[in-house]
Design a protein that fits this description.
about 110 residues, alpha+beta, 2 helices, about 30% strand, elongated
Length: about 110
């Protein structure tokens, strides 16, 4: 799994990078084998004016071309990351469930003899 972390108007420090990596590895533990790329972008929406303006955008690209994208805006980067990661976990769970159901439906059924 390739993890890319970017910041727009926010410095990506070593502790922040380590926290993001830990949080995402924990969140993606059960589906990591299905994930190719995860992009995390932090953005300071209002710049130096302040306010609830730290945005975290997470985009995940899966093994068969599926893409999941989520974002959250909060007063600080860690809160934005926490909520975006929670949403990502729920979205992945739904996607994996959908794919499993679809694969089961497409399998040829065996006739009872």
């Amino acid at each position: 799994m390739l993890l890319l972390i970017h910041g727009k108007n926010i410095a990506i420090t070593a502790p922040l990078r380590a926290h993001v990596e830990r949080k995402l590895r924990f969140a993606l533990d059960r589906v990591e084998h299905r994930v190719h790329t995860v992009r995390v972008r932090f953005d300071d929406v209002n710049g130096p004016r302040g306010g609830v303006d730290k945005r975290c955008i997470i985009q995940l690209r899966g093994d068969r071309g599926w893409v999941i994208r989520t974002e959250h805006t909060a007063p600080d980067t860690l809160a934005a990351l926490a909520t975006a990661t929670d949403r990502l976990e729920r979205m992945i769970g739904r996607e994996v469930s959908r794919r499993r159901d679809r694969e089961l439906a497409e399998r040829p059924r065996r006739l009872a003899s």
